[in-house]
Amino acid sequence: MEPWIAIPNRSHSQDKYSRKQSTGIPLSSWFQPSARPEVPTWTRWSAPIVWDGTFKTSVLNSYYKQQEITIGLTVFAIGRYLDKYLMDFLVSADVFFMVGHRVIFYIMVDDVAKVPEITLGPQRTLKLFQIKQESRWQDVSMMRMKTIGDLVEECIRYEVDFVFCMDVDQVFQRDYGVEALDESVAQLHAWFYNMQKMSFTYERNPASAAYISYEEGDYYYHGAVFGGTPLQILNLTRQCYQGILRDKEQDMEAIWHDESHLNKYFLLNKPAKLLSPEYCWDYKIGSSSQIHNIKLSWMPKEYKKVRDNS
After folding, report:
1. CA 129 to chain centre
2. Who is most buried in 21, 61, 202, 305, counting CB within 10 A?
3. d(CA 284, CA 280)
4. To which H or E segment does residue 108 belong?
């Protein structure tokens, strides 16, 4: 049976993620895996890996416009991350993220007064949420799982069909479109996509809830980008947060914090779609013949400046 992309039908009596799914769009109508023979375009569980050239934009846009979808995008801008990165992230997202479709930006900040004034384009809405700043940047990173889950339950599930969760220290470079949508979406980490699983920086302590053995693993997923339907994001964030709490009870912290728990979640709950490193690239890696069209790129990291909460 041919795989499909499914999206929820509209019904005003129910929240979006609890609605029955439509018949969807068959992969064969938009996905062309043979267009990129030099890179893997399928997972072993038959999920597509989206690279530039493997999808038909016109077919997907036509389909999703008929469905009148709304996409959410969550981002945290806390402390100096707000000052340094939020403006560039939002301006570039307004230009390149899900062009032609309704988008709601959910922005979590610790100081609403510092949010830059931005005039958004048509079909764009910005919603601000003030949250407290944690004393440690590691806790900011880990607590976002709880915050996103709470937000999904409180409002996101009623407002959008799909939601992406991204780090703020990135900037959109080119169209980041509906080819990225699916029930659950994981991002291949730019620094690990060509490596063997023995080299992945999973949490290797068996006592941690994020533990993955050297014999296990499919890919190393980047915590800077993940997405899906509100129900899938709720499940992901709740399970990751529960793992974080279990570790805290044992006075432990996974090596890469919430990203370690994200990798454990996707090991147990295979994503429906993977995004190539073109969807989250670090220019420090240099050029690569496999990277044709960079959609989103890392901003220069200045951790000593932005992670110092003093």
Report:
1. 19
2. 202
3. 12
4. strand 102-109
Residue pLDDT, tens place only, 123-171: 999 999 998 766 555 555 568 899 999 999 999 999 999 999 999 999 9
- Other C-beta atoms lying within 10 Å of the C-beta of residue 18: 11
- In tens, the pLDDT along 19-49 reads 434 457 899 999 999 999 999 999 999 999 9
Active site residues: 259
Domains of the chain, first to last: 64-306 (3.90.550.10)
Please state, in angstroms and as integers, the Cα–Cα distance from residue 264 to each residue in 42, 102, 240, 267, following that order: 20, 32, 8, 5
Interior CA angle at 185 toward 131 and 61, to 5°?
A: 105
Judged against a pLDDT cut of 70, whether residue 104 lies above it is answered with yes
CB atoms within 10 A of CB 33: 17
14 contact partners, CB below 8 Å, separation of at least 6: none
